[in-house]
Specification:
The structure is a single chain. A hairpin with a 5-residue loop joins strand 13 and strand 14. The protein has a four-stranded antiparallel beta sheet with strand order 6-5-8-9, with no helix packed on it. The chain contains five helices and 32 strands. It is an alpha+beta fold.
């Protein structure tokens, strides 16, 4: 064999080896990538003491962290952790010393992540006073950041009047106490005055039998020197209604039309969650929600739905997951019936409506002046009904239903003389306070770290506002 042939054969062998090595490398990389992808998706994991081809994932997270996680009564791990489980239904319990336990039945699905999203509440919360001179005529602002109240029991007459309590998460503003915005003028019955907040929470209309005023929520004014707005009130409220209408159209743009039609024809006490993704409402007539109103998404809430609506039942609709959960009935929660008795007596079907706009199918918003019939109006024939109409629109704090908790994942309500919180799907009901309080006012702190209640711990002392620490 010539040298050239030997050299050629050697080259071919080298090339052949490289081709084999290359192909082998490609196969190894492909198999490795496949198994890596399957591993990441939850396939081929050890679950229930054996290898399972397609597992699901439980993300057991909690606030505060470091809680024990029990699965079917077996201690498995601590939060925050991800657990691989065979697809099935499991009883999950999350426990931390000093906090009420959390229970829920969760369905683990193949290759999907299920999150517990556990919020634990202290078993023995502390309580601290916010006011000391007595409070009446309480009105929270539309943005949930302020509380307006009246006092006539201060040590000095100059300190009687309306006050605004500015809420924030760091508690610093409370060192100086509530801010007085009006004095108590002789001849004006401010104790029984009706109050209407502006939609942007910067102004307040105060309605008395003698005069009506528009005042700032940020600075003190002398009402005896303020202009009487009785003749301008209608126009001011009309402008506020139009602002509410435009904002409402923006918030509701992502909800399916079937749900919006339901809220207009077969529901009352309809309130958007703070994140604008869910609706809390009370059915007023029997109705049926169609299946798959929006395209299905993976890893949705697996709790039982209720798409057949019953009059008097309270529901939550989730627009992202197209899920509708029955959370309570008004009849089962008589403590919810507090300040709406007077409003209900007006017999006005729109008193507790949520949808102001009657033109949601239109792409261009109408103006109130040009198209007055395009609106459900909040203004009524008398000041009492008008004030209650605006108040019930802004917040459920004084309405016969539940309230949204600031995280949009929980509901706040009163039951059996106790303050309770539960998840938006109706599960994991927890008592957070069982001491004395007036059930006509329970309100969450803007960041959900506290609750505000109205109570008195002595028969000889007036009601004041107290804060319950939930952290």
């Amino acid at each position: 064999m010539t040298k050239s042939k030997k050299f050629l054969n050697r080259v071919l062998k080298i090339l052949g080896s490289r081709v084999v090595y290359t192909l082998l490398s490609i196969v190894i990389i492909a198999l490795g990538s496949y198994f890596a992808i399957q591993y990441a998706r939850g396939s081929w994991r050890v679950a229930n003491n054996r290898i399972v081809a397609n597992t699901g994932l439980l993300n057991a997270n909690s606030f505060p962290t470091g809680a024990q996680v029990f699965i079917d009564d077996k201690l498995i791990t601590a939060t925050d952790d991800t657990i691989y489980l065979e697809p099935d239904v499991y009883q999950i319990k999350i426990v931390k010393e000093g906090y009420s336990p959390w229970y829920k039945t969760l369905t683990i699905q193949s290759e999907l992540v299920t999150q517990s999203n556990t919020l634990l509440f202290p078993a023995a919360p502390s309580i601290t006073p916010l006011t000391f001179t007595g409070i009446d005529n309480i009105n929270p602002s539309p943005d949930g950041q302020k509380i307006l109240f009246f006092t006539n029991q201060a040590s000095s007459k100059l300190k009687n009047g309306f006050y605004v309590l500015d809420l924030n998460s760091n508690f610093l503003s409370l060192q100086s106490g509530p801010k007085q915005i009006t004095d108590d003028v002789e001849g004006l019955d401010l104790l029984n005055a009706k109050v209407i907040w502006s939609p942007d929470s910067t102004e307040v209309i105060i309605l008395t039998e003698n005069k009506e005023f528009l005042v700032s929520a940020d600075k003190k004014v002398n009402l005896s020197e303020q202009k009487d707005i009785t003749f301008q009130k209608k126009d001011i409220l009309a402008q506020w209604e139009e602002n509410i209408y435009l904002r409402e159209r923006q918030y509701l743009a992502k909800f399916p039309k079937e749900i919006l039609e339901l809220t207009k024809t077969a529901a009352k006490n309809v309130y958007l969650s703070p994140d604008k993704k869910r609706l809390l409402y009370t059915a007023t007539a029997a109705a049926t929600l169609a299946e798959d109103i929006v395209p299905p998404v993976p890893s949705t809430n697996t709790q039982e739905e209720a798409r057949m609506l019953e009059p008097g039942a309270i529901y939550v609709y989730d627009r992202e997951e197209d899920k509708n959960f029955k959370v309570a009935t008004v009849a089962a929660l008589p403590d919810l019936l507090n300040l709406t008795a007077t409003a209900s007596a007006t017999n006005n079907p729109n008193t507790e409506k949520f949808i102001l706009a009657d033109d949601l199918e239109q792409t261009v918003a109408k103006s109130l002046e040009a198209s007055p019939t395009a609106f459900y109006r909040l203004q009524r024939s008398d000041n009492l009904s008008t004030a209650l109409s605006f108040t019930n629109y802004y917040t459920a704090a004084q309405s016969n239903t539940m309230q949204w908790f600031p995280d949009s994942k929980h509901l706040l309500f009163v039951e059996e003389g106790k303050i309770k919180i539960m998840e938006y799907d109706g599960y994991n009901k927890t008592t957070v306070y069982s001491g004395p309080f007036s059930n006509d006012f329970v309100y969450p702190w803007p960041d959900g770290s506290k609750l505000i209640i109205r109570t008195s711990f002595s028969p000889d002392s007036p009601d004041n506002l107290y804060v319950i620490d939930l952290k």
